[in-house]
Amino acid sequence: MKPFDWDDTKSKALERERGICFEDIVIKIEEGFLLDNIDHPNKIKYAHQGMLVVNVDGYVYGVPYVEEENTIHLITVFPSRKLTKIYLGGEA
Hints:
Layout (H helix, E strand, L loop, with lengths): L3 E2 L2 H11 L3 H9 L3 E6 L10 E7 L2 E9 L4 E3 L3 E2 L1 H8 L4
Parallel strand pairs: 1-5
Antiparallel strand pairs: 2-3, 3-4, 4-5, 4-6
């Protein structure tokens, strides 16, 4: 897998607003908690994006990204009840 990169300002904002940052996601991926790598669900608006599906302490997060020539650029991180139900069988 290519190395990850991201906007540091966005990562800090995510940590403030959602309690998780890109660094946390990368650590979880390195620890083996990547559940899937799927096309972005909104293929019309975000056809150029993929989405990593990551288990973070028993809850699933979606991580949209753009694959660039040498890196995978992470765009945002969001908790997902729908993905948690699909991948972990939790309540939606």
